[in-house]
Amino acid sequence: MTPPAVKTRFAPSPTGLLHLGNLRTALFNVLLARAAGGRFCLRIEDSDAARSETRYLDALLEDLRWLGLDWDEGPGDGQPESAWRQAERGGVYAPLFERLEEAGAAYPCFCSAEALAEARARQRAAGQPPRYPGTCAAIPRAEARRRLAAGEAATLRFRVPAARRITFDDGVRGPQAFASADLGDFVIRRTDGTAAFLFGNAVDDALGGITHVLRGEDHLANTPRQLLLLQALGFAAPVYAHLPMIVGDDGAPLSKRHGAGAVAELRAAGYRPEALLNYLARLGYQPASDELLDLDGLARGFRLAALGRAPARFDGAQLDHWQERAMAVLPVAALTAWLPADLVPSEAREALVATVRPNLRFPQELADWARRLYDPAPLTLAADAAATLVAAGPGFFDAVSEVIAASPGAGWDSLRRALAEATGCRGRALFLPLRLALTGVPHGPGLGELLDLMPDDIRRARLERARELAANGTSLDASDPQQPH
Ligand SMILES: Nc1ncnc2c1ncn2[C@@H]1O[C@H](COP(=O)(O)OP(=O)(O)OP(=O)(O)O)[C@@H](O)[C@H]1O
After folding, report:
1. I need a surface site. Which of 124, 211, 233, 458 has the fewest CB within 10 A?
2. What confidence score (pLDDT) does residue 479 get?
3. Ligand 1: which of 9, 10, 18, 22 to mutate, most ligand atoms within 8 Å of CB?
4. Each residue's pLDDT tens digit, 261-297
5. Burial per residue of 69-94, b for 16 or more beta-carbon CB atoms within 10 angstroms, e otherwise
6. pLDDT recorded at residue 4
7. Which residue numbers delimit the Glutamyl/glutaminyl-tRNA synthetase class Ib catalytic domain (predicted)?
8. Residue 186 scores a pLDDT above 70
9. What is the Å distance from ligand 1's center to 9 Cα?
């Protein structure tokens, strides 16, 4: 089988909940692979045992599946875990560490964390950028072996070649150049024997046949190091492309450590996967159309050269815009699943959904509407709503009840005229107290549609209670106007 021309990957660490920054990276990798008829892989970078947790891995997989970002290779594809999980790949890395050491391209480093911190502090104080001072670079091999045999802890450091210019053409940012003198020898194996990020990440890309590494700009400084490493190992380098970071309101990049913009939270709040994907796809990329698109639609024409370089601020209003669009096309059957099981008679469920859906921002708001229109328990009214009923007066509700009782099956147009005549009110003076009496909230679908939907006994009870309230002239407990009780 010939390898695909494009093979991308998303390689998160299971150290926190997936956030919108991670997700945009995952999405763009999916789009790049799809646009080219290539493959998308999911790899889990859990070699840092202290920070990685199974619950985060589970949450990550659940989030990606919910979003429909399916992977061609990775967890659940029938391959052994060592194909996609770094913690299981020690056996793959060991001979490569050895190869580098044998070639003199890596050496054991015995510096303690304290000694390294002191060196960094000294460099900073002298106005120099902190980098490894090379303390262990010249330790003779025999001596290093002796110290290791005596049980001394050591990392393995990559020896950065002197006086080299490292250049590459970033798929998003264009030509990049770095001086090796600025890099400093870096750790590729931790003291516990596990692969450090720079090593495991680059090696897995190479061995996995990844052609394009599309990742956040936070990795840009890693790229020259990884290029040197791949070269020392004799592996081909992928195309590297770095996306601008997504920043939060405070201007800081979203990150797992800060827990902002977690996908799981947005899902729990009722956001639709299509809304998230359509919102994120438009951060730094202009899809073929302004419509709500599925993954194939978003992928049409996707290419690295079309990606923007400006950082993107998370914009809740834009996300809500796409949520609205996603809700508008959600099939009625998908929405009825959100109705409480026993409140709304089965023959009324579809009509209820069809009536209130233009007013829904989130599917779970359906439960509120079901209670407003079908729950016999009295509504709880906000103070200003109760005041509106009191101001309308008991006579208003007597007249309304009489007209409604006398006109069964009347269309809204004639009912409206009859109500206006009987109450002497029109426009807002008529509709607001009536709406508040029936639903408890000042907004929602057309009154005629609501009246059609509501069972007679509930409608009657709501008007009766509004009358009582207006007659007593007292306000009920002020409470959340969204919650009917
Ligand atoms: N705010 C962000 N905007 C865009 N991409 C991001 C952002 N944060 C992380 N990424 C990208 O998400 C991918 C997965 O990264 P990773 O799992 O290390 O997440 P992280 O949020 O940086 O985690 P941590 O907070 O533990 O460093 C990487 O390609 C990374 O560059």
Report:
1. 124
2. 45
3. 22
4. 799 999 999 999 999 999 999 999 999 899 999 999 9
5. bebebbbeeeeeeebbbbbebeebbe
6. 75
7. 6-320
8. yes
9. 14
Tens-digit pLDDT profile for residues 61-115: 999 999 999 999 999 999 999 999 999 999 999 999 999 999 999 999 999 999 9
Domain boundaries, the chain: 95-189, 332-374, 383-472
With the most atoms of ligand 1 within 8 angstroms of its CB, the residue from 24, 32, 214, 218 to mutate is 218
CATH architecture of 95-189: Alpha-Beta Complex (3.90)
Which of 359, 380, 315 has the alpha carbon at shortest distance from 453? 359
CATH 1.10.238.10 fits 383-472, yes or no: no
Ligand 1 centroid to residue 179 C-alpha, Å: 25
Question: Considering just the CA atoms, what is the radius of gyration of the chain in Å?
Answer: 32
255 lines ligand 1 (CB under 6 A): yes
ipTM field: 0.95
Check if 16 has its Cβ closer than 6 Å to any atom of ligand 1.
Answer: yes
Q: How far apart are the CA of 387 and the centre of ligand 1, in A?
A: 51
Is the CB of 254 inside a 6 Å radius of any atom of ligand 1?
Answer: yes
